[in-house]
Amino acid sequence: MATQKGLVVEKAGAPFTVVDNIPRSKPGPKQALVKSLFVAINPVEVFMQQTAILTTALPAVLGSDFGAIVLETGSECKKLHKGDYVFGSCNLGQNAYSPFQETFLVDEDAAFRKSGNISVEESTTMGVGILTSSFGIIVGGKVALPDAEATVPERDEWIVVLGGSGTVGHFGIQIARACGYKVAASCSPAKSSKVLASGANAAFSNRASPDEQAAEVKSITGGKVGLVWDSSGQAHEAGFKILAESTAQAKYFSTTDNVNNYTVPPGINEYQVRIGMLGRDTDIGRHISEETVKLVPVLEGHVAKGTLGPVEFDVFDESGWEALVDAIKYYAEGKAAKKLLVRLQAV
């Protein structure tokens, strides 16, 4: 069996180690084998390295956001071809699909084909954030996602994005705006200009109490809020108080939090986003995979049009596998001011 270089974690809490004996996969009929060019570091890599939660085998190959080039396609692939650039959110915790190695697999229908208006680096910042917010807004919030070429009039309705200055919040704002909604987003006061630059109509302070946030949102929106998207996964109390002041007949609350226990008030439809289950043969895994296949073609159109654009990022000074180890440590120590990318290999 052919082998390749990459990073592994031997067990929970073990350091990332560079090895050269990772099995190299062969694509199935609807899969592509891709070469990992860039990765973006997210909190989930640190979490999985420390706990081994979400891994399916040990030693584990990790990673989430990627930018890659197609090397080989399966016999039934129609969208992807050799030489295409792709990006996305990998099948988390599944070694053959993880980008912290020279090559890995993608399911053709779940990967984004990069359009010419963005660079490989820019695309690497987008996969996890776009999918996560699409599930929060489109799937969990029952919001219709229009085709990129459709003319969408602005509604006199609002979506509230909690955690608007983060990567997921950035894409939540853009997706909500693409669907025709006005957006009020929470952030620290110092980041309000960043949130407005992402497309929000209004920003409010997440440093205020939940009651104060609810009052501020009501003054901004007039209570015309049907969906609160907690992209931070840390603000359910504020979200519920905002919806308590809403005049909407149907009220939705979506969150990235699937760890903490809390009580959902009557009359609120709650949805927990779990894109980490993409590609798994479980009920939730099949749900995530089926919805992803529906979302990706439409989202690709919005990326190509520019409706959805990348977040600010920095590329780590060094490149390669040892540099990735150093970059993860740098990120875990809280030193990254922007989305942090690492160049792993040249084309």
UniProtKB/TrEMBL annotation:
GO molecular function, one term: oxidoreductase activity, acting on NAD(P)H
Record keyword Transmembrane helix present: no
Keyword ATP-binding belongs to the record: no
Record keywords, A-Z: Oxidoreductase
Origin: domain of life: Eukaryota
InterPro entries assigned: ADH-like_N (IPR013154), ER (IPR020843), GroES-like_sf (IPR011032), NAD(P)-bd_dom_sf (IPR036291), Trans-enoyl_RdTase-like (IPR047122)
Stored Pfam families: ADH_N (PF08240)
Domain Enoyl reductase (ER): 13-342
PANTHER family with a match to the protein in the record: HYPOTHETICAL OXIDOREDUCTASE (EUROFUNG) (PTHR45348), ZINC-TYPE ALCOHOL DEHYDROGENASE-LIKE PROTEIN C2E1P3.01 (PTHR45348:SF2)
Family the entry assigns: Belongs to the zinc-containing alcohol dehydrogenase family.
Protein name: Zinc-binding oxidoreductase CipB
